[in-house]
Amino acid sequence: MLPWRRLLRPLAVLALTAAALVAPTGTAQAASAPSSGWNNWSCKPSAAHPRPVVLVHGTFGNSWDNWLGLAPYLVHRGYCVYSLDYGQLPGVPFFNGLGPIDKSAEQLDVFVDRVLAATGAAKTDIIGHSQGGMMPRYYLKFLGGAEKVNALVGLAPDNHGTTLLGFTKLLPYFPGAADLISSATPGLADQIAGSAFLQKLNEGGDTVPGVKYTVIATKYDEVVTPYRSGFLEGPNVRNVVLQDLCFLDLSEHVAIGLTDRIAWHEAVNALDPANAERTTCASVFD
Q1: May I ask the CATH class of domain 3-285?
Q2: Where in the chain are the domains?
Q3: What is the pLDDT of residues 101-154, one digit of tens each?
């Protein structure tokens, strides 16, 4: 890389970060949108955005903190937006997504039905972060969700599990460690590459007919490793690397869901491909 480019890159990253912090996604902007906020059960989808959006948090997340940026971003653009809590463990407040993933998918099933009943829509779209981008695939494949979902957008999803930078390969050297993870936090055990849950989920193909899939990954992901393990194969699939959209974007696993407006812009393109606008580094200002 030329010397001037080495100097330019950190300056550009700072500019992108500053733009993300000041860009209009906050509650003041959301208040002027058709809905006063997300999880507004009186919101009715518009002709421009006829499907409500369900946001599915990741492991250790919840329906609120995972979406402080993206939910207002979507509401400001005229979407009816909803988020759920799932995978709760007894005696563990605030940190969710730790229960068995097949049971979490059942919670998603109930929540989607509630959203569709409240909005009168025939189908919904789903955006999920991390486990929240993978878990809905169980709902689509085994619980009849494909009839109720138009598109699934995964932000750094662990669709084929993770090695956590090789950490999971060390478990056999610590007797009882794998059993402890499985019994105490089954949602974590289900996400280990090669788990029985993931074998069942991916057997016979990654996708189901009738649903559009988008995966937005970051090559700086330190949780889903290797990061391309989040990619899907099949018809109606688009796999995107965030840095191919903006090479200056340094977002890792958490930031891609919490603060990355470039990833959010691409997610909106997936929700409304007919009106998609090319995602670039400048999309941080949209």
Answers
A1: alpha beta
A2: 3-285
A3: 999 999 999 999 999 999 999 999 999 999 999 999 999 999 999 999 999 999
